[in-house]
């Protein structure tokens, strides 16, 4: 009986292939949009997560002020050399502690110049960030103390300023500070936020404070825990030390924030996932519109086939049998649309993902959901027309022209 | 004594309310026995179609009893009426009412599909019914590929494939030319005589009505005459 019903439904659908296709176009577009959005979104999330994980999971960032959902303040007091020394001396299990001041400056070498990000830090920075040198060396102790100028440049900066030449030993001017290049960083690529991490110049903190920032304080700290040491433990130790040093009364909130990489990763992937969800929801609305399209055509179909329904009822089809027939037809139509939409959506996502250079992450869950959702749409929007067909009066239906 | 196949006890059918009330059937008493061939005649609005619909389980009387094989059908649900049609009645209509773009044999199989019969058995019975109406070899033709007379034969095959107790024919020759009408009436007559199927036929043509042994005339919702016709009359067309 089920096979018969499916066969009948298929015959009704295939009788007018063009109309059937146009009927389900709404569902096709809806499903394709959902699948494409979610697949591209998942790829982006995966890429962000992957890049953040490359920054090292045992890295901690300390910033003044409270940072988190709904609050971002930079009002709070910045850090001092004493804070760095205290962390280094009193917190166990650390591999490296590096102060970080950031700024932007024009860098000139020979005839070339470029505006780039300039980081003031110490030799520990490269250790904390797991950043290798492609050429040259890290800062020496005297350089770290700020008594002697030195710069380490990123690959992008090197290429823009020196082209093919070896920059080590050459001099650059960073905002009027003459600075010999002592090293070149290995390529790191784009950050999770999408900016080029290789477009940078690193100089000793003291030099940066004096000549670029015009300050004696420190705006953030990067810490790296030793392997096998819990970052949660390190985070707690740093927090209690800084509360003490900054004289925060018990019961008051911290005026600084310590994040580990996984927390930052969670926040960022949370954002992309939220965006994915929103886009998916917008696309889902078009699925609903598609369902209304199916209902519309099913109603037309019931009217067109009133006489046929009358014949079936007269020769012994029960109401339920007619209802089932039309319902199966609607569900078959919408599943047909759903499957077409899934294939189209995946193909679309595949193309866009290649263009965006993010991985292709097809989610079986969302494919399954899209399939079930489209079947449900056929069921829901097909029910009303099917019931109308089943409840026709056979006498009137037979008389229908 | 066995109950008659079909009995009307004071059957009335009223449409509308108040001033607009139309009394389509007014307290009709009628019995039809197994194996009869009955014609129903009357001008339009006489109630003949209403009577036919009630006999066919497509409509229920407003009052009175329609008794089928001794079982009163008053209070039957839609589903019960459907089952009565499915198992006891076969329908032939003026407009043939075959499914379009569907082969003859599939049209004939249709009532068996709703009975849940398996494919092979269905096919076998449908082929037998088609053979009985003289359409052997045409089973694969779709409705559009058949002439009017052939279409009506398919419809008759569809009506008898379930071995019904009653064949209900509503103006079966209304859309056919004279020659084809004769063929169809000969087929219906032979089904009645040789297969013992009770035939009840509505028509407005005297010469078609003459094929039946018994003739009922309706006027304004009343049964005005009920007569047995001479057998010979059926052959003077």
UniProtKB/TrEMBL annotation, chain A:
Q: Where is the MacB-like periplasmic core domain?
A: 20-240
GO MF entry, a single one: transmembrane transporter activity
According to its UniProt record, where is this protein mainly located?
A: membrane
Membrane-spanning regions, if any? 21-40, 278-302, 330-353, 365-384
Q: How does it sit in the membrane?
A: Multi-pass membrane protein
* UniProt KW keywords: Cell membrane, Membrane, Transmembrane, Transmembrane helix
Q: Give compartment(s).
A: Cell membrane
- Signal peptide positions on this chain: none
What cellular component GO annotations does this protein have? plasma membrane
Q: Which PANTHER family match?
A: ABC TRANSPORTER PERMEASE YTRF, MEMBRANE COMPONENT OF TRANSPORTER-RELATED
Family from the record: Belongs to the ABC-4 integral membrane protein family.
Name of the protein in question: Putative ABC transport system permease protein
Automatic annotation (TrEMBL), chain B:
Recite the UniProt keywords alphabetically: ATP-binding, Cell inner membrane, Cell membrane, Membrane, Nucleotide-binding, Translocase, Transport
Extract the PROSITE patterns matched here: ABC_TRANSPORTER_1 (PS00211), ABC_TRANSPORTER_2 (PS50893)
**Any one Pfam family match given in the protein's UniProt record, by short name:** ABC_tran
Please indicate if the UniProt record lists Kinase as a keyword: no
Start and end residues of each ABC transporter domain: 6-237
Query: What cellular component GO annotations does this protein have?
Result: membrane protein complex
- Single Gene Ontology MF annotation: transmembrane transporter activity
Q: What family is this protein classified in?
A: Belongs to the ABC transporter superfamily. Macrolide exporter (TC 3.A.1.122) family.
Q: What is this protein called?
A: Putative ABC transport system ATP-binding protein
Say which species the protein is native to. Answer: Rhizobium wenxiniae
